[in-house]
Write a structure and sequence with these properties.
The protein is α/β, with parallel strands linked by helices. It has seven helices and 18 strands. The mean pLDDT is 92.
Length: 310
């Protein structure tokens, strides 16, 4: 399912970041969304997902902010070819990074463009009267949504003097939270890893630490294996350096997918036998341990064969 959207505003005021406002062509209300949702828009003949930063209750517009990434086809299209009045296709909002409604407090930590889903979380916290605290680290002069953060959280801590200062303050903040606080972090991969490690060192249980990653590090090619599709009996060879998703597509098997980086959860497929080699950032540790599901875009087989429900 896709929806048509029109570009109604473009903002290039922050270097390297383009904020895009999208509306229904007829001005109608758009599908609502929960905080932390992303919107997949068609750019350069494929769908790329970007975090929504606005209010998800009866929205009349969607807003996204896109970082210009070197060699990034999608971001290049948004920055160089998207114009006011353009009509684009989009998939309805989805979330893999929602707030926990029962949390006593929400500790929101953003790094760089990772502020986008954090803004959405903060809007919801203010709307529902939930306690929220914000730490936002960025390079001076390259911070998106500073005005939104300032309006929604005047007491937010804005840290632009380097990762050492940020980590020092983070470690202090982690020890000052009331029981029942949940932590949410989004930003560059190394920054997320550092935040999660600091939370673990401070005794935070993994169930109270939530993250969203925008990209995956380069993965090793992996060993070849065979996948058997139990509904048809078809066997597909997956060579080293070729993802399971790609091999299935080349064999004419349609698998719903979006990010192709193990982040969004769209290409989740059930496993009937064999041992998955999980390399995604979506499944919980319990789901990975069960061995009953995998993300076809990045995960492989820890052995020579898998059987999946396709």
């Amino acid at each position: 399912m896709t929806i048509k959207l029109v570009v109604t505003e473009l903002d290039d005021s922050v270097p390297g970041i383009r904020s895009v406002t999208l509306s229904h062509p007829a001005g109608k209300e758009l599908p609502g969304f929960i905080p932390g949702s992303h919107l997949a828009i068609e750019v350069a003949d494929k769908f790329n997902a970007y975090s929504l930063t606005g209010d998800g209750v009866a929205p009349r517009q969607y807003t996204i902010s896109v970082l210009r990434v070197p060699d990034g086809v999608g971001s290049a299209y948004v920055h160089e070819h998207l114009n006011l009045g353009d009509i684009i296709d989009a998939r309805p909002p989805r979330s893999a990074f929602p707030p926990v409604a029962r949390a006593r407090k929400h500790l929101l930590i953003a790094g760089g463009i990772g502020v986008t889903p954090i803004v959405s979380h903060l809007r919801a916290a203010r709307s529902w009267g939930r306690d929220a605290q914000v730490l936002y680290t960025f390079r001076d002069g390259y911070a998106a949504h500073l005005a939104d953060i300032g309006e929604l959280a005047p007491d937010a801590e804005l840290i632009s003097d380097g990762p050492e200062r940020f980590m020092m303050r983070l470690r202090e903040v982690l020890t000052q939270q009331p029981f029942g606080t949940h932590l949410y972090v989004c930003g560059p991969g190394p920054m997320i890893d550092a935040v999660v490690a600091a939370a673990t060192d401070a005794g935070w249980p993994t169930s109270r630490v939530h993250m969203e990653r925008f990209t995956m590090d380069a993965l090793q090619p992996g060993d070849p294996f065979t996948v058997r599709l139990t509904r048809t009996g078809t066997e597909v060879e997956v060579p080293g350096g070729t993802s399971l998703l790609q091999a299935l597509e080349e064999a004419g098997v349609a698998v719903s997918n979006l990010c192709r980086q193990g982040i969004c959860g769209e290409c989740r497929i059930p496993v009937e036998s064999g041992t998955p080699l999980h390399r995604d950032m979506f499944l919980s540790e319990d789901e990975k341990a069960s061995g009953t599901v995998l993300m076809a875009c990045v995960s492989r087989c820890d052995g020579s064969a898998l059987e999946v429900t396709l």
